[in-house]
Design brief:
Length: 409
């Protein structure tokens, strides 16, 4: 073992939020006055009747409002400790919904290494004249401050931890910069979920989620959410969601709520497994460097300790050698499926340079530290010893493959 994993947290996140977890597990339970259904019914109806002329009830049309969607919105809001949430049909529509707060003369400052879909959306919408975008290196707080003081953005967009190198952005410092220049601070909290990080309590105004990942957690629904800190922001976001039609379907909300009820139990298992896998990687001669904020040698380890209540279950690592080692690892693993997403019960492995970050030029990848030998793992909730033997076997294959003669450069 070259670097220790800081296990300070234990199950702190879970203990701290016990009451919220109970409320989440029980969201909407035993609220059906008509039949006494224990689980909340799924209101698939697109339409709701009026009680008579001028007699609109709480709901009239499901794009604007739906009881099943409201159960999920309420549960996510309570976990993030916000004022309210809009539940959207994808994570990207949650991202784009927030940009409706911008006018053409407004600027958004975003991380240069943000999720590729966000990078594409911000660049393309800017190209179409909807607003302006400036990208900056968010691991350098002074660089972000300089960019913000020059461009006076309306929105500062944070994604922490970053993908795939898991660098941490100081949310409190970003909130200070946002106040200095009158911007809204938006944090994409997809990687950690509200159980491991609560950006609104660190000074953010809006939290965004791709619920496709941990919140649903079963890789069978795409969805998103935007949580607002204030009634005024919620009103604007809900108005735009109804206007442009980005709200989620009742069925997807019901499935996602089913996933959210077990988030705390899954996360505990995800984190335990991730730490077990980190230990194997960390001790193996075939591995060059492990990127995991729980490791004491991670450049942002102390920041992670200060603002997170867990380290999450995404790991990236560099294999020594080149393409033969990478191929041998990918062929050797039987439990990590080669796929791009993350946050589901099943373990996944991704090769960022040719998959999630393939749209970046070789130079941009190099600048962002994404080498051809880098692999990203989303560690699932399989039996821990099975994952340990699988990773060990794949690393042994990589070692055997490795004369390191073919290099990605
Ligand atoms: C951090 C982050 N934000 C937003 C998104 C977009 O979410 P979706 O794929 O649900 O549209 C993703 C998707 O991978 C993501 O990783």
């Amino acid at each position: 073992m070259r670097f220790a994993i800081n296990l300070k947290y234990g199950n702190k996140a879970i203990i701290m939020k016990y009451q919220k977890i109970t409320n989440t597990v029980r969201a909407g339970i035993d609220t059906d006055g008509q039949h006494g259904a224990v689980m909340p019914p799924v209101y698939l109806s697109s339409n709701f009747s009026f009680e008579g002329l001028g007699g609109k009830r709480e709901y009239d049309y499901s794009r604007s409002g739906n009881p099943t969607r409201d159960v999920l919105a309420g549960a996510i809001t309570r976990l993030e400790v916000g004022h309210g949430a809009v539940v959207t049909n994808t994570g990207m529509s949650a991202v784009v919904l927030v940009t409706h707060l911008l006018k053409p003369e407004d600027t958004i400052v975003a991380p240069h290494n943000c999720y590729g879909g966000c990078y594409r959306a911000f660049s393309s919408l800017s190209g179409a004249g909807r607003f302006k975008t400036q990208f900056a290196d968010f691991t350098d707080t002074d660089a972000v401050r300089r960019t913000c003081l020059t461009h006076r953005p309306r929105i500062i967009w944070v994604e922490t931890p970053s993908n795939p190198l898991l660098r941490i952005t100081d949310i409190r410092a970003m909130a200070t910069i946002a106040r200095e220049c009158g911007a809204l601070l938006v944090v994409d909290n997809t990687f950690l979920t509200p159980l491991l990080q609560q950006p609104l309590s660190l000074g953010a105004d809006i939290v965004v989620h791709s619920t496709t990942k941990y919140i649903n957690g079963h890789s069978d629904v795409v969805g998103g959410a935007v949580v607002a800190k204030t009634p005024a922001l919620l009103e604007k976001l809900a108005w735009w969601a109804n206007c442009v039609g980005s709200t989620a379907s009742p069925w997807d909300c019901s499935q996602t709520m089913r996933g959210l009820r077990t988030l705390h139990a899954r996360l505990r298992c995800h984190e335990e497994n991730a730490q077990a896998v980190v230990r194997v990687l960390n001790a193996h001669g075939a591995v060059g460097r492990v990127h995991y904020p729980g490791l004491t040698n991670h450049p942002d380890h102390h920041l992670a300790l200060a603002q997170q209540s867990g380290f999450g279950a995404i790991i990236s690592f560099e294999l020594k050698g080149g393409e033969p080692e990478v191929r041998a690892f990918l062929d050797g693993t039987k439990l990590f499926t080669l796929a791009e997403s993350l946050g589901g019960v099943e373990s996944l492995v991704c090769h960022p340079a040719s998959m999630t970050h393939a749209a970046m030029t070789r130079e941009a990848q190099h600048e962002a530290g994404i080498r051809g030998t880098l692999l990203r793992l989303s560690v699932g909730i399989e039996h821990t010893p099975d994952l340990i033997s699988d990773v060990s076997a794949a690393l042994a294959d990589a070692s055997r493959a490795g004369l390191g003669v073919v290099s990605f450069g």
